[in-house]
Amino acid sequence: MGSNLKKINSLIESCRQLLSNFLTAPYDFYPQIEKLFDSLFVESDKLNLVAFKSSLAELYRDLQIFDETLGKLHYTDPDSLEEAKLFISGGFLDISSYLSDLKKHPDGQELKEKNAQKLTLLKDWMAEFQLSIPQDIPEEVEEANIERFIIFKLGEDNFAINENIIQEILHVNLDDLNAIEDPHFKAMVKYRENQILIWNRGALLGENFQAGNEEVKIILVGSRVGTYLGLEVDKILKIQELDTNLFTSIEDITGPSYQGAIQFLTLFEDSPLFIIGWRTDAFIKDLIPIHLLGDAR
Fold first, then answer.
1. Per-residue pLDDT tens over the stretch 217-269
2. Which end of the chain is more exposed for a tag (fewer CB within 10 A), N or C?
3. Which of 142, 28, 124 is nearest to 81 (CA)?
4. What residues form DSSP beta bridges with 1?
């Protein structure tokens, strides 16, 4: 049992270390800790720690409630964030205390009763937290019209793209693109000076392709047909929240005569955009010239 308990303690310590960044990046906490809890459940099953697992399950359920509640508050309410951190820290402290007792005593009735008391405290604490959060959280229906757009500069023009379709943003060193062996890709890069890139990322990018460099900014997205498409931008200006209730798609902006991406590009032919293959239409039409985005506010 000793080696298994050591592994469980190590996982708990990893969970507690994640708390150090909770106040600065609370939106990252739950996705990371979810994986650690999966491992904790497996290890507790190996040792048949029924009472311990019940505490884990309660704490995990509470973390889900935290994530949902704080998400509705856009992770910006400082009092709720501080309260959540204190609760989570206390929960892990209780679990560590149980593990410490388990080393000294068998998992007998006394220890189970002690664990049950702590479990009750966890539930009571969560109930208090839910009562303490602001009561004017916007309903999801009201929030549905608020979208976040990444505003960026491409050449001399500013554009926006809905954050929901962005898969990831990477900073890429141009020298690392040499790892791509596809000749058509290389020719396109040379011809268009990287204004727009398209590739199957898993098949064509080599191991040297790393995030973290500042020389070139590329937005990577997944198109609706599964092809990866990257659009180099000169500068990401800001992320802006807009009420998009006035329009639901680019067709609503361009009018009923809109026929697709090619026409959209010809409407704004001064914009340095480049299309390769009809399959990219689904992505290109989501690029919005910033002056049109402004009109929609």
1. 444 443 333 334 455 556 666 666 665 544 444 343 334 443 433 333 323 33
2. C
3. 28
4. none
